[in-house]
Amino acid sequence: MEDIQVQNKYPFANSSEVPDEPEHDHDHDHAPINNDEAYWAQRTHAIERILEQKGYFTAAEVRKEIEREDSVTPMLGARLVARAWLDPEFKARALVDGKAACRELDIDTVEIKNLQVVENTEHIHHVVVCTLCSCYPRAILGYHPPSWYKSTAYRNRVVIDPRGVLEKEFGTIVPAEVEIRVMDSNADTRYLVIPNRPPNTDGWAEEDLIKLVTRDSMIGVAFAEEPSKNNKNHES
Fold first, then answer.
1. What is the DSSP letter of 11?
2. In sequence order, which ranges of 54-141 are alpha helices (DSSP H)?
3. pTM for this prediction
4. What is the CATH number of domain 73-229?
5. Is there a contact between 71 and 139 (Cβ–Cβ < 8 Å)?
6. What are phi and psi of 77, to 5 degrees?
7. 197-205 contact pairs (CB < 8 A, 24+)
């Protein structure tokens, strides 16, 4: 099959590195660079100090919250997926109540009102979007959603042409006979996709299956990794 090249047609597509511009001699001045990041960092720090002085929270509490957020990665969602691949009864419970399934794995989803877990099959492929803003299951996929997920281009186009977006922008070719369902995340309900389990993984342990589950596969814009792409060797 001919390789599909990812196009840079839309803002959420992958893009190649931009080469550095060559140095040039000149006698004109450049406009000063405004360090907006430094400005907002200073502003945030000042507000934080005021709130600390008023007793709303302590510096230690801020540090702990930052540590908590940094500890949340897509690995948490991958644990749920791998467990669902191995345990049909757990998967059935997850499809009914995603938050309850997370509690079984000691994953804190208190900030998610409703977590709907959906399963990709040989007949149905799910892809998640938030058409209104960028609602995202941060508690299990990390606190920083990918930039393309938040982009207006992705949010608009994946609803209209999900098959085309998956193929042209992510290189994910869903067979024509497979139905694609677009799940619209919102403030009340967040979605997690259980991707199809890759072939040739019979007998794999949970910790090895976790390595095949990517963030994008749990959003539905990609498939889980193939075993050949991992360094782990398994004997049948």
1. T
2. 59-71, 74-86, 88-96, 98-104, 138-141
3. 0.72
4. 3.90.330.10
5. no
6. -65, -35
7. 197/85, 197/224, 198/223, 198/224, 198/225, 198/226, 198/227, 200/227, 201/85, 201/227, 201/234, 202/236, 203/234, 203/236, 204/234
Backbone angles phi, psi at 22, to 5 degrees: -65, 150
Residue 71 pLDDT grade (very low, low, confident, very high; cuts 50, 70, 90): low
> So which residues are the catalytic ones?
130, 133-135
Sign of CA dihedral 91, 199, 176, 122: negative
41-45, 141-145, 163-167, range with the lowest pLDDT: 41-45
The domain segmentation of the chain, as residue ranges, is 36-70, 73-229
The string of pLDDT tens digits covering residues 14-34 is 433 334 434 445 454 444 434
